[in-house]
C-alpha cells in the first residue's frame, strides 16, 4: 500500500486565473473629458440664464429663491435625480437708500458714490454728519489720544498691495487689517467708518465688504466703502484742509429667516463615500454675481453633465452643494458641515470653485502630505490643459468648514489678476466672463474629480 502511495503522481493544481483590474489610460480619459466639455459644454449658457435671467440673488430675497428654483430645474434637465434642499439660517438685511456727501469749509456738498458694508447698521434715514479724519496705519491709530476721534468719521485709504502678485493674498491681507474693522474704530469713539474699496481697479466703482461686529460692541457704527478715485481725491483734500461728511443710510437688519442650500448627486456604483464640489449660489444685492460666483455654479453643473454625457461609472457618490448665505453670513457652509458630521458621512474629497471662471492654473491642496504627493504624481496628466500649480495649500471658500472633519480639500486656482477689478461690485456682470476660460476650468475640475474617484 505504501509503495503504491509513494508511486502516485501528485495531483496537478489547476492554474488560477488572475483577475485583472481595469486600468485607465488617463491621458485618453482626460482628452475625452476635455473634448466633451469644450465641444458640448453648456456652462456659459447656464451662466447667462442665471445672471441675465435672474440677476441679483442676495440672501433672504425673492431673487435667491428664483435662483434655487432655476438650479433645481437645470439639474433635472441634465438627468440628475437626487436633488434636495437643506435649510440654513440667513440674516434679513435690507440695504435701502444710501448716500454720502463731503464738503470743505468753503465748498458745497458733493455726492460720493458709496456702498454700505453688508449687514451694516444704518443711520435711521437721518443725516449723520461729522469731520473726517484720515488714518492709514495702525501706528497712526495707536497714536491717537483718548477722545481724539470722538464723534469723528474715520476714513481709511488702504490700497491692496500691488507688489503681491497673487491678488487673493493681497486682498486677504488688506481685508484682515483692523483699520477697516467697524468694531475697532467704534471703540475710539468715532461714529462712522469710510474705507477705500478693496479692488485692483483704478475707477470710481465702490466694492462691498461684509461687516463683522463683535458681540461686546457697545455701539455699532455704520461702515461704507467708496471707489478708488474718490478715495484718493478725498485724501488729497484732507492733507490741506478740513472736510466734513454727511452720511444717510436706511439700512436695517430684520432678524433671521432660512434659505436652502441645494444639493444634488450622482450616486456611487461602488460605495456611498462622497466626493463633493461646492459653489455659492447667492450674490450681492446690486450686481449679477457672474464672477462671484455664478461661474462656480455653472462649472459644478458642467461636471455632473459631463459625467452623465460620457457615461462615466463613478465609484463614489459625486455631489454638488450650492451654498446659501455665503456673502453676508456663511451659514450655508456651516450647516452643510454640521450635516456631514451628524450623519457620519464619509467624504473622500471636497473641491471648491469661487475664483471668477478665469483661465485655470491649478489646484490649491489643503490636505495631508500623503494625499498631496498622490496628486503631484498626476501632474503630467494635467499639463496639456495648462494646469501646473499644485503648490498652494489653503482652501478658504465655502468648503472650508469641512477641514474640521479631516476631509481633504482643494480649490480651483485661476489667473486672478482681473478678479478684484469686479469683485463685490455692480461691475460683476456676465460680459466679464470668457466662455473658453470658463469651460477650461470646468474641464480641469471634471478631470480631477474623475482621477480621484478612480484612485481614492
TrEMBL record:
Record keywords: Carboxypeptidase, Endoplasmic reticulum, Glycoprotein, Golgi apparatus, Hydrolase, Lysosome, Metal-binding, Metalloprotease, Protease, Secreted, Signal, Zinc, Zymogen
Predominant subcellular localization, coarse grouping: endoplasmic reticulum
GO MF annotation list: carboxypeptidase activity; metal ion binding; metallodipeptidase activity
UniProt KW Metal-binding keyword: yes
Pfam families associated with the record: Peptidase_M28
GO biological process, one term: proteolysis
Domain (Peptidase M28): residue spans on this chain: 261-438
InterPro entries in the record: CPQ, Peptidase_M28
GO cellular component, one term: extracellular region
Compartment(s) of residence: Endoplasmic reticulum; Golgi apparatus; Lysosome; Secreted
Top-level taxon of the source organism: Bacteria
PANTHER family in the cross-refs: CARBOXYPEPTIDASE Q (PTHR12053:SF3), PROTEASE FAMILY M28 PLASMA GLUTAMATE CARBOXYPEPTIDASE-RELATED (PTHR12053)
Subunit text: Homodimer. The monomeric form is inactive while the homodimer is active.
Annotated protein name in UniProt: Carboxypeptidase Q
Annotated organism of origin: Chryseobacterium lathyri
